[in-house]
Design a protein that fits this description.
Layout: H1 13-17, H2 26-43, E1 55-61, E2 75-81, E3 91-97, H3 104-123, H4 129-140, E4 147-153, H5 156-163, H6 172-180, E5 187-190, H7 198-202, E6 211-214, H8 228-232, E7 236-238, H9 249-269, H10 277-300
Parallel strand pairs: 1-5, 3-4, 3-6, 4-5, 6-7
Antiparallel strand pairs: 1-2
Length: 301
């Protein structure tokens, strides 16, 4: 992470899983792809680890960089792992993000989305006895929540385009596996575009979602609204501030750098400069450059 390299990035998820991308010989790449495909399947299982759990898709699009606010880029969802489908009466809910260094900030946001949907379900009688015991349990065999949460995870190059330096710290597979382990999600879409256009939303698994949620973020300012399509469709919802909103990849990296700086200062006092000073200085310079770029984008907004 502190070396500021991008060698951990995955250029194309589909190419990686099919064994056409990555280090090593063709045989080694093929084995790595099959191993990771199995790992995705394992992580998508239910809490017992033996039954199907979350559905997993990948979005195939010609250009998902998010550099333009296009609504006509074609694409389609390809299923990677089958799992539990939406149940009768559930609302389809969509969120997206980088989910880098998956943390309490991400988990709390997802929890708040479910909490908002539970409040809406309560207002429409979801938890009334007639709905639970006379409809859902007799029909499906068990009870379930009012929302089916679909999570889009952005590609490495998409995040790096907007955040710079060597973000994301974790590649798309690592980030997606973290999301799959979260209790609040029902479905994951790898390689989700930065801008959820009408074309994309209409072609999500099971059709256009009932709601698209977005939460508080310290992301750099943009020159356009990525959620304009969701707002035009009248399905955009905003999650307010919460206790863990400041916990994100950038904040975690800064904590590490500050701790490293304290370590270097202690080593200097002991007469040992340490081998990592130049690495830290390089990282700090790249962070400053990224901050300057953010300010320039804000001025030009």
């Amino acid at each position: 992470m502190l070396l500021c390299t991008r060698t951990h990035f995955i250029r194309s998820l589909s190419q990686f899983l099919s064994g056409n991308e990555g280090p090593g010989s063709p045989e080694e790449r093929s084995n790595a792809g099959m191993e990771m495909s199995q790992r995705i399947k394992d992580y998508a299982s239910d809490e017992t680890g033996r039954q199907p759990g979350a559905l997993v898709y990948s979005w195939d699009e010609s250009n998902s960089s998010g550099q333009t606010n296009s609504t006509a880029i074609p694409g389609s969802c390809k299923i990677l792992v089958d799992g539990v489908h939406p149940q009768p009466g559930q609302r389809l809910v969509y969120v997206d993000g980088g989910f880098d260094l998956f943390s309490s900030g991400h988990i709390e946001f997802l929890r708040q989305v479910i909490k908002a949907e539970e409040a809406l379900g309560r207002s429409r009688g979801w938890y009334e006895e007639t709905s639970v015991h006379l409809r859902r349990i007799p029909g499906e065999g068990n009870d379930y929540g009012p929302a089916y949460l679909i999570v889009g995870v952005h590609d490495d190059h998409v995040i790096n385009h907007w955040k710079g330096v060597n973000y994301p710290i974790m590649n798309i597979l690592e980030r997606g596996l973290c999301v799959l382990q979260c209790r609040y999600i029902s479905c994951v879409v790898f390689s989700a575009p930065f801008t959820p256009s009408k074309t994309y939303l209409n072609n999500l698994p099971f059709g256009t979602p009932h709601a698209v949620y977005h939460g508080p973020t310290a992301f750099m300012p943009l020159t356009y609204d990525p959620y304009a399509a969701a707002k035009d469709l009248g399905i955009y919802c905003q999650i307010g501030n919460h206790d863990f909103q400041h916990v994100n990849a950038g904040e975690i990296v800064q904590r590490i750098l500050r701790s490293r700086q304290l370590y270097e200062e202690r080593q200097k006092k002991k007469g040992d400069k340490g081998a990592g000073e130049e690495v830290v200085r390089r990282r700090e310079q790249m962070e400053e450059d990224a901050a300057m770029l953010e300010k320039e984008r804000a001025v030009n907004r």
